[in-house]
Design goal:
With 169 residues, the chain is mainly α. It has a domain at 100-169. The protein is 71% helix and 0% strand. The chain has six helices and no strands. It has helices at residues 12-27, 30-33, 36-56, 71-97, 103-130, 137-160. α3 packs across α4. The longest helix has 28 residues, at 103-130. It is globular, with a radius of gyration of 18 Å. The two termini are 24 Å apart.
Amino acid sequence: MLDFLQVETARVPQYAAFFVLGVLAYRYDWLEEFDARVGWVWLGGGLGGVTVLFVIGADADCFGPGGFNGPAPVWAAYDSALCVSLCLGRLTVFRETVTRSSRLSAELAADSYGVYILHVPLVVAVQYCLTDRGLFPAAAWVTTSVFALSVAFLPAAALRRLPGFRPVL
């Protein structure tokens, strides 16, 4: 149904909520007001959640296979909590450690939403090109990440300069 949006239908409410919260956070300056100690705790919780996920696996019985069953809401809550904790934690890390701004970092930051929108087809294309190349999964992930991310900034920067796109991207 929503293939043109390149999102999983089940994640649309989460994405919409994050979008609304992002607008509110910007408008009311929540990210600057957010206590760093609380952000570090969220990051710790997120990293702990990732560790648990890798130890027991996302396909563990406690998370369920999806569909309408008892463990499915456990997975939905876990996934959402993990997402929120890692987002808050990473925002805190960058706010507290990356304090210098340059012309390049300002440009990349301005292009970041466009990159977010454009990166999925680029990632898929790179993954398709790397199929059956004999790369270890970690090497394929690094190659895909570096290539697709760096390439995504070029069209995002170009689109942002077109009339009508700047307010949106």
